[in-house]
Design goal:
Blueprint: H1 3-30, H2 35-71, H3 82-127
Length: 148
């Protein structure tokens, strides 16, 4: 967090504390009849604050990714988490159990082969989703369409 962000957070924390104090004071003066309305009002302010913080973080992350892509230093996929990279494979292996039973039960060994060929094909396609196209024709040295 930068110095400016830290100061903003401290100011907003102070504002939130003042709001809570005002809500509690109003509750004491107005009594139990207005308690739910006061609590809902305070929670709405807290919710708006959380939404604003999340929105700022998302904008910051999108801007960072756009900078990385604009610079061309790495692909946006380089920020994939472990779950994004390996979760699909794990899910497909879990799904392979009933699919293998169905394929093997319906068409015996050929059905099992077809089922597993499909599972492997889907996982290979997922793994290669951001990779450069290896089948793209590379041009000659003087070719303006040459891939570098």
């Amino acid at each position: 967090m930068t110095g400016m962000d830290a100061r903003d957070a401290q100011l907003k924390d102070a504002e939130l504390k003042k709001e809570l104090a005002a809500t509690l004071h109003a509750r004491r003066e107005l009594g139990d009849d207005y308690e739910s309305a006061l609590v809902e009002s305070f929670l709405e302010k807290v919710d708006q604050r959380i939404d604003g913080a999340v929105e700022r973080r998302v904008r910051r992350q999108v801007a960072e990714q756009q900078m990385v892509v604009a610079r061309g230093t790495s692909s946006p996929r380089s920020t994939d988490t472990w779950g994004e990279r390996y979760g699909f494979g794990v899910v497909s292996l879990v799904a392979a159990i009933p699919l293998s039973g169905i394929g093997g039960g319906v068409a015996d060994l050929p059905g099992l082969f077809v089922t597993w060929a499909g599972i492997v094909a889907v996982n290979v396609a997922w793994a290669l989703r951001g990779a450069p196209n290896p089948l793209r024709r590379r041009g000659r040295a003087g070719d303006p369409d040459r891939e570098e």
